[in-house]
Structure formats: C-alpha cells, structure tokens
Amino acid sequence: MLASPLQLIDSFLLNYTIGDVLLLGFVGGLVAILPQRSLRMLGLHTIALGALLVITPASAMEPNSGSVLASSFQYKLFGLVLLVLAPVLYAVGRR
Fold it and tell me: 69: domain range?
C-alpha cells in the first residue's frame, strides 16, 4: 500500500533537528539578502538566527542520523559566533 505524502515528508524530516532547520533558514535568508547588498539587513538577520540558536533548548538540537553538526554544543557555539559577528556587520553597513 502506498504511503500518503505527509507520511513521506514526516519520515524524511525525522532525520533532522530544529538546529538543522534554523541553519537552513539562515542560508535561505542569506540567499534572499545578498542581491540587496545591505550589510545592515544581513547583520539583523545574523543576530536573529544567532539568538534563536542560543536560546533553543539543547534537547531540541540533539543530533540525528542526518544532522549537519555533531552535537548540540556545536549548534550553540555557532549561534554565539553569529552573535559576535552580527554587530560588526551591522556597524559596517551603510544602508
């Protein structure tokens, strides 16, 4: 018997965590912001995603078989790096 489309999507997404989704959102946002060439907007985007990675509970980011990073600590560390880098991007931006 064929599985419904929602079951297929669910079985695919079970391999990923919220940290992976946030990283994918960060990359998707970068792709959307780069044509505008606005470092201030890029700085705000980086602050938002960095803060989300830092405040997300570590239990929600425990790695699965398809996770991008190996531990929840690495997701938190990446969020801290983004939070340190973001004010620099915002301050350098002109528009």
Answer: 5-92
Helix (H, G, I), strand (E, B) or coil at 37: coil
Q: Convert the pLDDT of each residue in 11-21 to its tens digit.
A: 777 778 888 88
Q: What is the pLDDT of residue 3?
A: 65
How far is 77 from 17, CA to CA, in rounded Å? 16
Report the domain count for the chain: 1
Which of these, 19, 1, 8, lies nearest to 79 by C-alpha position?
19
Question: What does the angle CA 40 – CA 43 – CA 44 come to, to the nearest 5 degrees?
Answer: 90
**What's the rounded Cα separation, in Å, for the pair 32 and 36?**
8
Question: Do residues 56 and 19 lie in contact, with contact meaning Cβ atoms separated by under 8 Å?
Answer: yes
